[in-house]
Amino acid sequence: MKRKLVVLTGAGISAESGIKTFRDSDGLWEGHNVMDVASPEGWHRNPELVLDFYNKRRQQLKEVLPNLGHQILAELENDFDVFIITQNVDNLHEKAGSSNVLHLHGELLKVRSTKNENYILDWNDDLNSTDLDDKGNPLRPHIVWFGEEVPALEEALKLTQQADLFAVIGTSLQVYPAAGLIAFTNPEIPVFYIDPKPIKIPNLRNPLEVIPEVASKGMKILKKKLLDFI
Fold it and tell me: What is the mean predicted confidence (pLDDT) over 151-172?
């Protein structure tokens, strides 16, 4: 029986594919104040700006490819039951071939009703203010904005608690509640942490191995280490 490997990924794993992260520098995301394009207040203040922002992100996503970090994670399914909990809204894990991907913060390639959060559609093209749900309500990006609840959190907690091995890749561990997941691991299981600028993880009881590399290099190292657990 394969061991369950649960992996929390953040923006760092997609950065090598050319997707920018707003936490790398000055709090701007593709030139915008993040609260203008990723908050309910920003949406109510200027929905056209928000729609345009995510339309551009959606178009950019069509031009980028998974990198070696994504690919190695997909390959690990040969030896482990791999479950990815990602803070990313891109689809690069799926493009690389990963089977079990839980998106904590929503997905660029989906939209939902502004009135019914369960009305969700796949969406590959631009979203316009004239696009409506089946009741005539406007559609919005299927993104969890700052200040909104994280619907997938409960499932993420269950996966974390069931892990035999846990890895954190390319996340600053500063965005909650995702950053708090690591505290719910079984304290006896090993935790691996890949990031070129790793932070100190407070109060972690688990055996921890830090790999201070970008995702692609770090995943090569991690794969060798994980194969010792088969």
Answer: 94
Residue 31 burial class via C-beta count within 10 angstroms: exposed 0-12, middle 13-18, buried 19 and up:
exposed
Q: Which residue has the higher pLDDT, 180 or 165?
A: 165
Domains of the chain: 4-193+217-229 (3.40.50.1220)
Q: CA-to-CA distance for 46 and 44, rounded, in angstroms?
A: 6
| Residue 95 near residue 71, CB atoms below 8 Å | no
End-to-end Cα distance, the chain:
10
64 contact partners, CB below 8 Å, separation of at least 6 = 14, 17, 18, 19, 90, 92
Q: Which of 16, 66, 8, 68 is nearest to 192 (CA)?
A: 8
18: nearest Cα among 8, 30, 6: 30
Using omega within 30 degrees of 0 as the cis cutoff, is the peptide bond preceding 177 cis?
A: yes
The residue among 90, 120, 133, 92 whose CA lies nearest residue 108 is: 90
Flag whether pLDDT at 17 surpasses 60: yes
Per residue in 31-49, pLDDT (tens digit) is: 778 889 999 999 999 999 9
Helices 68-75 and 215-226: crossing angle in degrees, nearest 10, is: 20
Residues 6+ apart with CB under 8 A from 183: 203, 204
Q: Which sequence positions are flagged as catalytic?
A: 105
pLDDT of residue 99: 97
**pTM summary value:** 0.92
Q: Compute the distance between CA of residue 128 and CA of residue 147 in angstroms, rounded to an integer.
A: 24
